[in-house]
Design brief:
It is a single chain. By secondary structure, this protein is of the alpha/beta class. 40% of the residues lie in helices and 23% in strands. It has 2 domains: 213 residues, 3-Layer(aba) Sandwich (Rossmann fold); 68 residues, Arc Repressor Mutant, subunit A, CATH 1.10.10. It is built from 8 helices and 11 strands. The strands form 3 sheets. It has a 4-stranded parallel beta sheet with strand order 2-1-3-4, with helices on both faces. A hairpin with a 4-residue loop joins β7 and β8. It starts with a helix and ends with a strand. InterPro entries: P-loop_NTPase (IPR027417).
């Protein structure tokens, strides 16, 4: 679906020269003006494929050679335990060598644990990455090659990421298999369902993926209606009616959003008649005609 290409574009945005504009597939990335470390760890692909990916990153970032501060490692030959040790030790080394870490990408985070459904292992891994991000004051991007279930990630590893991550983006293919769409599943502040849907596709002339604009607002509203209809079905499967306060709490819990976002969702759901006022008691909401 283009996950590795998308994170490659973020790395390209980080290593570009500050005054040069590049196609970072619709996402603004701060250039690494202070020359801090930019680190890529690949747990899935071969050394040959990683070399190709790096060549594409350099071309996209309009770099003729690999900057000294950009380090990329293929961890596929290591055991899962050794992979995390390598990441921890090298982050510490390069933090001091380059006066900080600008960006870290772990392509294939599921390959750092034996089983994505092992709760203790998943919690331990995410706690460690969360700790590292805090210690080194950096952004760690983790690529999880999973199919999300609506707005939720699957498995204990997915659940932990959902809880601790500042943002979660899903890259999917829809009706047209040649176009990849970037959807927000979670944002720290605000509504993931109101974030524009970024699109990119393969460009033969440029021999790389290119940004092709955002989806129309109608498409975004359609996605919002579909997702909130699913949430309403789930919430009302337990009870037939809820007060406004109870419904707000249920939406906050189900979607991991703040109170003001939950209230805006209730407003939207009422407009679309996903939920209705109970005709027998105006204090309650019931599920609409969906």
């Amino acid at each position: 679906t283009g996950k590795s290409n998308y994170v490659g574009s973020l790395i390209a945005g980080a290593i570009r020269t500050a005054d040069i504009s590049i196609d970072s597939l619709g996402t603004d990335v701060d250039a690494n003006e202070d020359g801090k470390a930019v680190l890529l760890y690949d747990t899935e692909q071969s050394e040959v494929q990683l070399y190709k990916n790096i060549s594409n990153i350099l071309r996209r970032g309009k770099q003729t050679a690999m900057p000294a501060y950009f380090k990329a490692y293929c961890l596929t030959s290591m055991s899962r335990k050794e992979r995390l040790q390598a990441i921890v030790q090298s982050m510490d080394k390069f933090y001091y060598q380059y006066g900080g870490i600008h960006l870290v990408v772990i392509d294939g985070i599921a390959d750092l644990v034996r089983c994505v459904n092992d709760e203790a292992e998943s919690v331990g891994l995410i706690d460690e990455l969360y700790r590292l991000a805090g210690i080194y004051k950096t952004c760690i991007i983790c690529v999880l090659h999973f199919v999300p279930n609506g707005l939720k990630l699957r498995g204990h590893l997915g659940s932990e990421l959902q809880r601790k991550a500042a943002a979660i983006l899903s890259i999917e293919r829809e009706e047209n298999p040649e176009i990849s769409v970037v959807k927000a599943l979670k944002v720290r502040d605000g509504s993931p369902l109101d974030i524009p849907l970024i699109q990119f596709s393969w460009n033969k002339e440029q021999a790389m993926h290119t940004y092709i604009g955002e989806k129309p607002k109608e498409e975004r509203d359609k996605r919002k209606e579909t997702e909130l209809s699913g949430v309403a079905r789930s919430i009302f499967s337990n009870r037939k009616h809820y007060t406004y306060v109870d419904l707000c709490e249920q939406i906050q819990s189900a979607l991991d959003v703040k109170e003001r976002t939950a209230k805006s969702y209730i407003r939207f759901m009422r407009e679309k008649e996903i939920i209705l006022k109970d005709p027998s008691n105006a204090s309650y909401f019931i599920i609409g005609h969906i």
